[in-house]
Amino acid sequence: MAKTARTVSTKSGNSYKCAECGWTTAKWVGRCGECQAWGTVEEIGVTVARTTAASTVAVPAARIAEVDASASDYLATGVGELDRVLGGGVVPGAVVLLAGEPGVGKSTLLLDVAAKFARENGDVLYVTGEESAAQVKLRAERIGAIADALYLTAENDLGTALGHVEQLKPRLLIVDSVQTLSSAETDGTAGGVSQVREVAASLIAVAKRLNMTTLLVGHVTKEGSIAGPRLLEHLVDVVCQFEGERHSRLRLLRATKNRYGPTDEVGCFDLSEQGIEGLADPSGLFVSRTKDPVSGTCITVALEGKRPLLAEVQSLLAKSATTQPRRATSGLDSSRVAMLLAVLQQRTEANLSEKDSYVATVGGVKLTEPATDLSIALAVMSANTGKALPARLIAFGEVGLAGEVRPVPGINQRIQEAHRLGFSHAVVPASPSGPGPIPTGFSVREVHQLGEALSLLFPH
Prior knowledge:
Blueprint: E1 5-18, E2 24-25, E3 41-53, H1 80-86, E4 95-100, H2 106-121, E5 124-128, H3 133-143, E6 150-154, H4 158-168, E7 172-176, H5 193-210, E8 213-218, H6 231-235, E9 238-243, E10 250-258, E11 266-272, E12 275-278, E13 297-304, E14 307-319, E15 327-330, H7 334-347, E16 355-361, H8 373-385, E17 393-395, E18 398-399, E19 405-406, H9 411-420, E20 425-429, E21 443-447, H10 450-457
Parallel strand pairs: 4-8, 4-9, 5-6, 5-7, 7-8, 15-16, 17-20, 20-21
Antiparallel strand pairs: 1-2, 1-3, 9-10, 10-11, 11-12, 13-14, 14-16, 18-19
């Protein structure tokens, strides 16, 4: 095949470039003047043109209809909640980046995945750069993650780690973490921008060549974003965020990027000393169990991705001892709660200006979607009047500043989930298409205004 010439660039001279956004400057600075990232400006060269020959094609391009896609079928990991988030399992040759705060349980989750995958699908290589092999072995024994086909190595050198991969050729490679590996062929310390870029590119290249699924652990910054160059998120096929509060056992797994499946699914896990387990039905964690209804509480149904979760909102009002009443929240957006208190104060007869307000969720769950507005308002009014809401009642809907109750996505899906868990009444926003098919024995009241809901539940 004939070779054609093309022009590429080489380096000569001195200048500096941001590894994140490509901004250039004549002198080194600690912070990029374009994207404001710290520590991403690196020395490069002034480009001059040279000519090189195109390489000979070894494998000709194939028609897309003739490409064999069976090699990319999903493989179940053995962890149902992880498979749900990934869209059915892992894809051979795919590279998955799992990011989360220190101590959230990333290593425990991946060690559990490694053992279960090894028992069902073949060899797994676990490369740990943060702990010794003995430490990982102790955790594996504690959580029951011992498997004959699971291989473990403690390594910080990229070249040696790749040597283990070439020798074993595993079906699944786990690297914990990508920031701890370093390449001798690249300048900089482990975890730096250039090192992370080189390590990730090398691991991705070998994963594609061997058709080997790869799971990478990534650190996060104090702002919650993934540490390292932004290029890292573009290179991998799937980016997952592992979230959770230190005082709570609940952990949530979300996919923010997925080339092979959806990004609107959420996986729920229970992290304990015995290990980590998937929660197919976590709603019970977010609802208190009391024999009789209590004033100041309201059950709502939140959507986490496509998944409906029942949660309880609690409110307590007390006479303020100061001229400026206190507004405290937990698990809710404080500014949105303050807005709802103002709406109740202005659009109803409620007098909340002289009372301290405490509004919280049960079980440490965070509710951020506007659909929880109606339940917050009802919980506050229940606390203000001292009257408990009816048992087995749920409420959801967005409340506007004019007191209107706006439709929210997934009305029927929320109703079906509430019915499945034993609830029988719902107060929902009115929508042009209606609430959809209603389960037998389930009562639904549609409201247009907040006042309608309050008149229904708190009649004079």
